[in-house]
Design goal:
With 410 residues, the protein is of the alpha/beta class. It has two domains: 3-275, TIM Barrel, CATH 3.20.20; 349-400, no CATH class. It is 44% helix and 12% strand. The chain has helices spanning 24-37, 53-64, 81-90, 105-110, 118-134, 152-165, 181-195, 210-223, 246-255, 259-262, 274-285, 306-314, 349-358, 366-383, 389-397, 399-406; strands at 3-8, 41-45, 72-78, 96-102, 139-145, 169-174, 199-203, 228-232, 264-265. The chain has an eight-stranded parallel barrel with strand order 1-2-3-4-5-6-7-8, surrounded by seven helices. Strand 6 (169-174), helix 7 (181-195) and strand 7 form a beta-alpha-beta unit. Helix 2 runs antiparallel to helix 16, helix 3 runs parallel beside helix 5 (118-134) and helix 8 packs across helix 9 (246-255).
């Protein structure tokens, strides 16, 4: 039976959100947390973008050390052979990629302004896939940007061409959030049955249906006989109205009526990491979690009505579909109200040694502590906000890799 796999794109699509962004250290911490959460693949950046190269190579170094667990680290680029060559030259350890091509008449006529024909777009994508395979790339996905507004016959032609050239899967991009659950099911099932290529679902929330469309599309792919890969972002962060929320997709796959009985989510997801992950992303992007957000919102397990309170105290499942413990919730949040010693770009070594000792890390001598503190100062400068305990611990554990992450080469 085909399965559903999760490909998170927060560090690619999410960081492109207008007026928002993450420092490279924050992107790294997110990569580690996504690996702990258990996503199958993480679209962690842009290998053709100069300021990403040091960060990408450093994170692949962490992956070799086992820090990223079983999660595949994948780079995004245009479906052009020159982009593949440039990416592999800049990030030699890159093994997984997604190539993006625009396929709708709207994009071809009004973005490319007629500079490329439909056949030329297919030819570029096919060549890019072949070049990637020749350069030792292990898995290649090909994106059909604006697939939901692409002529059906041409979309099938595009999908067959990239499959025949060696692509592992087709990413069906509902770039404008145009689909609904009924239409996307039908389209995805047709592609699966006609072409026989595994399908990624990349849905946006412009009409508020990103999660519903992702799950419906996954049903269509599996009913059509192929594996499916759902693109998500943490807290639905993403361009315009955002993407399919990671936690909501998992909850929907596990708990929506009749879904889990027929459609299997691939093993590896640890939902107990959801609370920590969602709150870190909220802090890093400086975007509060809505109180009614599925699973991690403040009010998800709050009950004010007397009838509801009575019912949930008798049996939580009277008014709760799943338990808060499953999301990693339930522990009290403590806040120091006495003496506080902070570390940052102006911090001193004595205070730093004190902070790290409280976090369970001790240095062999003052010189080692000073060396790590210098890196912490740059880390704090790069994110320009209070540095978290998780970030401090990471820099102390991997100071040399942290330096590479913080280094930007022009």
């Amino acid at each position: 039976m085909p399965k559903i796999y999760i490909v998170d794109v927060t560090n690619r699509d999410g960081v492109q959100t207008a007026n928002l962004g993450l420092a490279k250290l924050e992107k790294t911490m997110l990569n580690i947390m996504l690996a702990q959460f258990g996503v199958f693949q993480n679209e962690f950046g842009f290998p053709t973008t100069c300021h990403e190269v040091g960060y990408l190579n450093a994170n692949l170094e962490l992956a070799k050390l086992g820090v990223m667990g079983k999660t595949r680290m994948e780079g995004w680029m245009r479906a052009l052979p020159e982009d593949v060559v440039k990416s592999k030259d800049a990030v030699p350890g890159l093994e997984h990629i997604n190539l993006s091509a625009s396929t709708s008449d709207q994009m071809i006529d009004h973005k490319f302004k007629g500079k490329k024909s439909k056949q030329e777009i297919i030819d570029d994508a096919v060549t890019a896939v072949k070049v990637a395979r020749d350069m030792g790339i292990k898995s290649v996905g090909v994106n059909s940007e604006d697939a939901s507004r692409t002529d059906r016959k041409y979309l099938l032609q595009f999908a067959k061409a990239v499959k025949d050239s060696g692509a592992d899967r087709l990413r069906y991009c509902d770039t404008l959030g145009y689909e609904n659950p009924f239409s996307i099911y039908k389209t995805i099932r047709e592609i699966a049955e006609t072409v026989g290529i595994p399908i990624e679902l990349h849905c946006h929330g412009d009409l508020g249906m990103a999660v519903a469309c992702s799950l419906a599309g996954a049903q269509g792919a599996i009913d059509g006989g192929v594996d499916t890969y759902i693109n998500t972002t943490v807290n639905a962060i993403g361009e315009r109205a955002g993407n399919a929320d990671l936690v909501s997709v998992i909850l929907g796959a596990r708990y929506s009526k009749g879904f889990a009985d027929k459609y299997e989510l691939a093993d590896g997801i640890d939902l107990t990491k959801a609370w920590k992950l969602a709150n870190y992303v909220s802090k890093a992007f400086n975007v509060p979690i809505p109180v009614n957000q599925a699973g991690v919102g403040m009010n998800c397990f709050a009950h004010a009505s007397g009838i509801h309170a009575d019912g949930v105290l008798k049996d939580p499942y009277n008014y709760e579909l799943y338990g808060y413990e499953e999301l990693g919730r339930g522990e009290p949040i403590c806040r120091e109200t006495g003496r506080i010693i902070c570390s940052g770009q102006y911090g001193g070594v004595a205070g730093f040694i004190h902070i790290m000792k409280n976090l369970g890390i001790e240095f062999k001598d003052k010189e080692e502590a000073q060396s790590v503190l210098n890196t912490v100062r740059y880390a704090n400068l790069s994110i320009n906000k209070p540095i978290s305990d998780e970030e401090l611990i990471f820099v102390c554990q991997y100071p040399e890799i942290a330096k590479k992450i913080l280094t930007v080469v022009f």
